[in-house]
Amino acid sequence: MPKNRKLFSSLALRRRAVASGAVHRAWAWVQETGAVTAQHPGRLRFGRIGAGTRLAFPQGTVFGEAWIELGDHCIIGEQVTLTAGLMPGLDLGSDTVLTLGDGVVLGRGSHVIADTTVSIGSDTYCGPYVYITSTNHSYDDPHEPVGRQWPRMEPVVIGPGCWIGTGAVILPGARLGRNVVVAAGAVVRGEVPDRAVVAGAPARVVRSWDPEAGWQPPLRTPAPVPIPEGVTPEQLAAVALLLEEPSGGA
Questions:
Q1: Of 20-24, 31-35, 240-244, which one has max mean pLDDT?
Q2: Which residues fall within 8 angstroms of residue 150, CB to CB, at 6 or more apart?
Q3: When you count CB atoms within 10 A of the terminal residue's CB, does the N or C end of the chain come out lower?
């Protein structure tokens, strides 16, 4: 009996491994097929979707896409919400409401809510669960439920080259300059100058760049090692593929 049980257990494990592999292959097919690109937009009809841009499957809530323009080579993670207007089915006029520049990255679960204009500059990277909104609730009337009071709307502008950390919140009226770093969990409102680092809730500038003195306060981390001269993009891509391959060892 112990030997039979061992045999049955081994067969069950093999069947489970086969079934697991089939599930993973099926899910990979679903993800590939459900991804949105310019060539395969599915049900979504964006005002523009640039070459090389991809919205991973499953997508989050997306509406008002006729007033949304996505630049080239953007990466939109799974369950990312992109909305233009307060609700679906509105006519928002002739102007674009939500604009993503080229090379924008929105991490998994992020939200970009554009009830009025939101612009995200090229090469801005957002970690997962970032929340960018042009609308905030009102609570002026202390006797009326907050959710029934008409919200306030202000445009949001995020400059090119920014890095927005996981869980950060960008509030209505925020204007971020070029190459701004927003720390994870920060809540940003108002103006942020170029080449600044902000952190906290509400966010404040904790480091800034001076053309003569450099970063102030000075950086505590060593400078990154540059890519050696002569290395081609093809060689870097080959190295990345090697790193992705599973190890052949036990």
A1: 31-35
A2: 138
A3: C
